[in-house]
Write the structure tokens for this entry.
Amino acid sequence: MTRVRWVLGAVAIVVGTAEAVLYTNVVGRRLGGAGVVEAYPIAPAASSLSQLRGVDELKSWFNAYKGHPRLIFLVSPT
Amino acid sequence: MAGARWAQNELLAKHPKADVRMFAIWFRMYPGDAESKWPSELLTDSRVEHRWDEPKAAGRWFLTNLSSLKPSRGGDGRFPQRTDALWDSYLLFGRNATWTDAAPSGLLSWGYTILRTKAQLQSDFEFAIASR
């Protein structure tokens, strides 16, 4: 009985390690874990909006992302 | 709002690796508009930031200053009439654009309404994300 438990424990460790390696190399890479962003995720829908702190906040955002194309939308909710 | 849905489906979803950043500024233009009616299910992509602009500061600023920005790939030339703010509009800027004290540089194109000018936006969006 003790030997069976030992074998099962060893199998569990091997399987767990394999899962960890698989996650790190496949899922982690997909999510950018290796420093490569392959796709930008869909974020959960936010429940509320922050207030724009004037044109200065827009200007700060704009300059913070220099090096990226930037798209501004001016829209109403209906 | 239809323009935001179109952008989500046709620009962001179809270019999930593009390093574009988007700022969506929402404000009241119709009597029924309110912050509580903000469609949170739209533009949920992590590259998008949203703000509510009660005084329409951004829309007013662009309505006043847009004519001096000189888009390199074409401006729509058609402004919203009898309004106090630029709205239902997009402005697309290139990678090297910066906003100095006076105004932002590097405007590629702009359009009003978003849906009416979506062909230009799509074309210029693809140009912007491809250029390095």
